[in-house]
Amino acid sequence: MINLLKEVSHTNESYERVKLLKDRFKGETVYITTPGPSLTTHNREELIKRLDGKPVIALKQSYNYVKEVATIHGMSAYGYQPYEYYSDETLVHWQLTAMNMPYEINRIQNEWQHRADIMIPCYSTPWVPMQRTTAYTREFNNWLAYSEGKAIWGPGIMYETGFPLALHLGAKEIVTIGWDIGDLSKFKTEKGFKLGDDDWKKEHSDTLYDEGVNAGAGPDYEELKETIDCTKEMYDWFLEKNIKVRILSDINPADKRFERITLDEL
Question: Taking the CB of residue 113, how many other CB atoms lie within 10 A of it?
Fold first, then answer.
């Protein structure tokens, strides 16, 4: 496993650690796992074997499926559950709601007593309304703000931590695993998941969540639609930056120009 924590351990200041990670994997492929329903359809032993020794950002509950090879575990305070870490070498990264940072830091450190190696603010309301998020505006240069030690409302951790962190690390290629975004046909047009809040959890790899964890109701229809529709401009942005993105998912509705791969091609 790649031990980034050891490389930044001489400082406890989050922003200093962020700066030390700049271009750490310059020109390499960075792998991002997310807890979408397609993640657990892949043979776990084979997936671990293929990711071994590679830079892996495991977002939220996807950590439980790839814990042996997770270089970084990316989390937010939403949908939190306790984790038993396979290795102390995994760097634990939190994005915090900028408006609620003191409250969330208190929860992480005192209530949950969870490790936090890096914490960065994610700017949302009241500074960034939904209509000014990265997905709505297609301002993917927002992702470059990570190098300044901050994230911009995506919405969603993939658009707030996943892609920005991979870019900060210097990725020349990004491979997503379990990034499924969502299926618009399963959502109400007004608010929430069609069949109820519990079904959002089931749609997002139920086996990865601890019993009793509130996975949330997920996005509303408009939010999900913008998150999907923006991938057309997202593809163009990555193309302009000369960064290749490949998707290991057979249900991701992103722009068809993104290359889809199989586990054998990982």
Answer: 9
Which uninterrupted H or E stretch holds 92?
A: strand 91-97
Contact status, residue 193 vs residue 200, Cβ threshold 8 Å: yes
- Say how far apart CA 166 and CA 160 lie, in whole Å: 11
The tens-digit pLDDT sequence of the chain (266 residues) is: 899 999 999 999 999 999 999 999 999 999 999 999 999 999 999 999 999 999 999 999 999 999 999 999 999 998 888 999 999 999 999 999 999 999 999 999 999 999 999 999 999 999 999 999 999 999 999 999 999 999 999 999 999 999 999 999 999 999 999 999 988 887 776 666 565 555 555 555 455 666 656 555 567 888 899 999 999 999 999 999 999 999 999 999 999 999 999 999 99
How far is 153 from 97, CA to CA, in rounded Å?
9
Phi/psi for 228 (5° steps) reads -80, -50
Listed residue (220, 198, 219, 224) closest to 209, CA to CA: 198
3-state secondary structure of 16: helix
Contact 114, 12 (CB under 8 A): no
Helix and strand totals (H; E) in the chain:
11, 9
> Could you state, in order of their start, the residue ranges of all structural domains in the chain?
4-265
